[in-house]
């Protein structure tokens, strides 16, 4: 058996000699060889770039929420204005990410509409690409929803702390001291001197003023309790309103997805009806042609029989 010889180095020398004879210098030849070894990165599509930008925005939003979690939840670290500013920034982040996802959805819909032919039939490769892009948009939407759900939990903790802070505290019962009244009655029942008789109207007037003051205090305390209860209910209503708005947004997205599926199903049904009508027309035309052919054939046989 003949021995095998490695001719790789000879091939490289031949290629180098041919390149030098064709006018390539050493630096240009080295750049070409390096391009063969280290391939250039593929040019990314605009959709891929936009999707990666949206993913980076969502990741930045998640890092921002993790960084300011303690500042937003702990009441002793920041003030209400700072927590409101954090919430405003997070809402702006979420709105921007949602707008970017909507732009991606619109680009997919435009591409899907422009890729359809005159028979509204798409190729398999284009269908796979569109399905892949829909999957990318779905992943981005789920990622954004999970990050916003984390912040919703933080908002629920903040609302609960606000509710606990504004809960009305129990106040001691304001009951007049019966011993003082008994002592005042006993003092009134004791024999009084002429000086005490002169100051008796003043004491009666002072007693009336004290009674009115106590009545006003009780009324103000009841009004304060009612105001605190109203404030607590308003905070609870705001928290429930926020949770309801979140669920309504989720339902709106689901309804939009169902509407798109219904529109696609309607288009498919229309396409099927067109194909069925065309098949019926082809069947009727083939039947007519077959009848005509049989008639002509029968007439020809009769003619040939009569002629013979």
TrEMBL record:
Recorded topology in the membrane: Single-pass type IV membrane protein
Primary subcellular site in the record, as a coarse category: membrane
InterPro entries noted in UniProt: SNARE, Syntaxin-18_N
Domain (SNARE-complex protein Syntaxin-18 N-terminal): residue spans on this chain: 5-86
Polar residues: bias regions: 176-189
Location(s), subcellular: Membrane
GO cellular component: endoplasmic reticulum; SNARE complex
Gene3D superfamilies reported for this sequence: 1.20.5.110
GO biological process assignments: protein transport; retrograde vesicle-mediated transport, Golgi to endoplasmic reticulum
Region (Disordered): 163-200
Pfam families from the UniProt entry: Syntaxin-18_N
Key words of the record: Coiled coil, Membrane, Protein transport, Transmembrane, Transmembrane helix, Transport
Listed transmembrane segments: 289-307
Family listed: Belongs to the syntaxin family.
Protein name: SNARE-complex protein Syntaxin-18 N-terminal domain-containing protein
Taxonomic path: Eukaryota, Viridiplantae, Streptophyta, Embryophyta, Tracheophyta
């Amino acid at each position: 058996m003949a021995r095998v010889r490695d001719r790789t180095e000879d091939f490289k020398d031949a290629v180098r000699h041919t390149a030098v004879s064709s006018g390539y210098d050493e630096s240009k030849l080295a750049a070409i060889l390096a391009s063969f070894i280290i391939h250039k990165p593929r040019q990314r599509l605009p959709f891929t770039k936009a999707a990666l930008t949206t993913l980076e925005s969502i990741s930045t939003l998640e890092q921002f929420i993790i960084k300011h979690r303690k500042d937003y939840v702990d009441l002793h670290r920041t003030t209400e204005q700072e927590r409101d500013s954090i919430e405003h920034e997070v809402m702006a982040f979420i709105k921007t990410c949602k707008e970017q996802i909507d732009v991606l959805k619109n680009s997919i819909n435009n591409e899907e509409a422009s890729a359809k032919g005159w028979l509204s039939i798409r190729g398999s490769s284009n269908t796979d690409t569109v399905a892949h892009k829909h999957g990318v948009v779905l992943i981005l939407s789920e990622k954004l929803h999970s990050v916003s759900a984390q912040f919703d939990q933080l908002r629920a903790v903040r609302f609960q702390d606000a509710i606990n802070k504004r809960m009305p505290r129990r106040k001691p019962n304001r009951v007049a001291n019966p011993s003082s009244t008994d002592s005042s009655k006993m003092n009134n029942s004791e024999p009084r001197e002429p000086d005490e008789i002169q100051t008796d109207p003043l004491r009666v007037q002072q007693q009336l003023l004290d009674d009115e003051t106590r009545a006003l205090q009780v009324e103000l305390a009841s009004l304060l309790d009612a105001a605190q209860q109203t404030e607590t209910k308003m905070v609870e209503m705001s928290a429930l309103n926020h949770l309801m708005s979140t669920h309504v947004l989720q339902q709106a997205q689901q309804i939009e997805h169902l509407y798109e599926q219904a529109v696609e199903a309607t288009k498919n049904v229309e396409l099927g009806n067109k194909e069925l009508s065309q098949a019926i027309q082809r069947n009727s035309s083939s039947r007519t042609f077959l009848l005509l052919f049989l008639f002509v054939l029968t007439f020809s046989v009769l003619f040939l029989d009569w002629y013979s």
